[in-house]
Amino acid sequence: MELTATALAKLIEGTIEGDGTVLLNQVAKIEEGTPGCLTFLANPEYETFIYETGASAVLVETGFDARKPLPEGLTLIRVSNPYQAFANILKLAIEDRQYPVGIHPTAFVSPKASIGAECYIGPFALIEDGAIVGDGCQIHSHVSIGRKATLGINCILHRHVSIMDGCRIGNECTFQSGATIGSDGFGFAPNQENTYQKVPQTGNVVLEDQCEVGAGTTIDRATLGSTFIESGVKLDNQIQVAHNVRIGRNTVIAAQTGIAGSTTIGANCMIGGQVGFAGHIQVADGVKIAAQSGVTKSIQEENSVWQGTPALPIRDYQMQQITLRKLIRSLALQRIDALEQKLS
Predict the structure, then answer these.
(1) List of residues 6+ apart from 327 with CB closer than 8 A
(2) Of 104, 142, 243, 280, which residue is the catalytic one?
(3) pTM
(4) 140 an active-site residue?
């Protein structure tokens, strides 16, 4: 991708301050900018770098006011949201690297499968009987799509993704390398011999439109019915979603979170990394949970913020930590006083 600053500004509805004819052919972090680079300033903590960057152009907020002289020749592109504008530009850069339409000769596509128009199917991909792949999908190398699984349009499945039998994927979903959708849920029943008998997992997984699933993330099929991921959900790497879980629309979950079976998480929630959820609980819409928390009971208050293990409303957790520190300090002082009395 090579564009003038003016042409790029038109694409993102920005305004130019400086040389609009400068050519931009790559993107970079603001502290690593070089001639020809476009970068962005969205976080005030990085403002110091704009006064010494080697980039040719910087995306800045509309109201940005430089506190010091800018590097000579630096072009500013003013937009309402620099981070979002930069993300849109990165999307354009990725589109320049699209894979060719067609099926690689080493891929196996069942004659009983249905493949839409303008699809790319890479080396050693496997698409089984009854699978349906929508128009414009990218199926990269070593991807496996099981029997009667369905994909909507414009989905991207990176290397070694597995979509198991009967799972249903909506439109414009992205799966990073190694994601597994529809593996068996962890269902075992103890028996008289003090061993565990496997409970057949007969359901599936349903993902609605515009979901993203990170590398190594696993979403288990339901015992009965569906494990259900609503539209717009974004899951980071190495997340475990157990059988019969439901996650509401536009919820985002950071890495290494584990969600036990039959738990429901509401819409527009934000879940930090390494959060653990007990099974059979409900979390209301808009809830935020801090990293490394353990959610052991249902959260019914919408838009509330929780932290700790077991998770508490954040103010209660903070007061608990302050009280604990004061107690520890008080006990330490008591021990010091006792030792001083003995020494005297």
Answers:
(1) none
(2) 243
(3) 0.81
(4) no
